[in-house]
Automatic annotation (TrEMBL):
Gene3D superfamilies: NAD(P)-binding Rossmann-like Domain. The lineage of its organism: Eukaryota, Viridiplantae, Streptophyta, Embryophyta, Tracheophyta. Its cofactor is NAD(+). It comes from Gossypium mustelinum (Cotton). GO terms for molecular function: NAD+ binding; UDP-glucuronate decarboxylase activity. It is found in: Golgi apparatus, Golgi stack membrane. InterPro entries: NAD(P)-bd_dom, NAD(P)-bd_dom_sf, UXS-like. This is UDP-glucuronate decarboxylase. Keywords: Decarboxylase, Golgi apparatus, Lyase, Membrane, NAD, Transmembrane, Transmembrane helix. Its main location: Golgi. It comes from the Eukaryota. The keyword Transmembrane applies.
Amino acid sequence: MGSELIYRGSETQPSSDSYSPKPVKPWASVTRTIHYLLREQRLLFVFVGIAIATLIFTVFPTSPAPYVAPHSRFTTLIPDSITYFPIETQQKFSSAHRLGFGSANPTSKIPLGLKRKGLRIVVTGGAGFVGSHLVDRLIARGDSVIVVDNFFTGRKQNVMHHFGNPNFELIRHDVVEPLLLEVDQIYHLACPASPVHYKFNPVKTIKTNVVGTLNMLGLAKRVGARFLLTSTSEVYGDPLQHPQKETYWGNVNPIGVRSCYDEGKRTAETLTMDYHRGAGVEVRIARIFNTYGPRMCIDDGRVVSNFVAQALRKEPLTVYGDGKQTRSFQYVSDLVEGLMRLMEGEHIGPFNLGNPGEFTMLELAEVVQETIDPNAKIEFRPNTEDDPHKRKPDISRAKELLGWEPMVSLRKGLPLMVSDFRQRIFGDHKEGSNTNNASSS
């Protein structure tokens, strides 16, 4: 019988079972890994590799991590911009906690029997009169010194005797431009100090005091260095207090011909204290009174150098005004000692650094006559504008807190300066004799 198709619409066709995946076997991933390792002797190669690595680390142990000194600049995470912190945060940036160069307070006392480690120190204006004598002392102490000077008033001859010394570097640079160094201490002396020089370009003078100080404070902040500002007795102006104490605020003409220097230094002191209070920078402030000695600029307009140069040249000693205005004069070695004690002490300052022995201009002229030429004449000229009538430091604070006071009298120090000036004016002394005399004093 032939086949036929029969349609039965009312009948329901049996449906096939729906798809379902195989159930996951327990430990499938573990067994799969084991099978993989057992095939082709892979497990053997794993053990061989472990054995080789163990042998290498046993025979060649890893060297210890290099010691990173607490004063490494790369640990410094403080931003360059000034940020003001609450008191609790400022305490974290004190000398015991701060990061960067100088954080371990390298100027603290060294225990007996241990050799003092030399510091790395930058001296701005280090080729100048005071700066070069400071460099001599620091080099003799065993420190590494970087001199930064633009040679406006500084002289390369002042530091030439250090050329070839591996602990000495000289950079021709103007502090008005930023400078990147890694140092422990900064002595900031860069600024023309005599009226002839700072009046030559008053705008440049105030830029050096303000922008230059900002740049050096920024450097101190970045690397954690201690910063010393050499301010001046000129911040007292024509003082109404005599002698002048550090607490005296001064009597300064803000628009006078000397204000580029006077107000510039006052602003530099303000910046220094603001960096200390706001950014935790360790700072020191010295207010320097009249200083004399070898390596002074011969024709810089300051009274001691003027009198000595004029007497040597057989010229009249020029006294401005009636000659009754007073000054105090300290020898340069005394000043350098005071600066170093201030830097290494624990007191911020400001500190007056000067000789309280007071001389009128006529008395100074007489001392120069006695030292050089008793027949030297004195010539009076009109006084200069804003010339202070009295200037004498009260150094009781420096005596008490720094244990410092001047040791060289005017009659003892002046001949050493005369010897240097005579050699530079006439060339009749051996080269280097002035340096030996200065260091021996």
